């Protein structure tokens, strides 16, 4: 049996790749002779660039940027030839906002 495993990330918990691997392990423990094709996906938000970087064979690079509170930090981006991708969530996403500073009102 062959199956495609195509999950999104679990916000602030697991990347799409980690979710796919966990599902794969569950299937392999339950079903003999199963072949799993992992195809992590994203919905356009957190984890999307990670989900597509492998299929495009992008090289990981780092750049110094200014974070949401004016702090200097390193941010990764992915590049191949004239194409460069970065994920805004890596800079200003919910995971970058400390719990004590999260105040939607």
From TrEMBL:
GO annotation (BP), single: organic acid phosphorylation
SUPFAM superfamilies documented for this protein: Glycerate kinase I
Enzyme Commission (EC) number: 2.7.1.31
Pfam family for this entry, one: Gly_kinase
Segments crossing the lipid bilayer: none
UniProt entry keywords in alphabetical sequence: Kinase, Transferase
GO MF term set: glycerate kinase activity
Highest taxon listed in the record's lineage: Bacteria
PANTHER family for the chain: GLYCERATE KINASE (PTHR21599:SF0)
Protein name: Glycerate kinase-family protein
Phylogenetic lineage: Bacteria, Bacillati, Bacillota, Bacilli, Lactobacillales
Gene name of the encoded protein: glxK_2
């Amino acid at each position: 049996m062959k199956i495609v495993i195509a999950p999104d990330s679990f916000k602030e918990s697991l990347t799409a790749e980690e979710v796919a691997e966990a599902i794969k392990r569950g299937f392999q423990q339950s079903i003999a002779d199963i072949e799993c094709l992992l195809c992590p996906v994203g919905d356009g938000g957190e984890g999307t660039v990670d989900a597509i970087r492998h299929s495009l064979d992008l090289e990981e690079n780092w750049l110094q940027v200014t974070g949401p509170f004016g702090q200097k930090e390193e941010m990764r981006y992915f590049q191949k030839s004239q194409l460069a991708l970065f994920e805004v969530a890596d800079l200003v996403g919910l995971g970058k906002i400390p719990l004590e500073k999260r105040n939607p009102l």
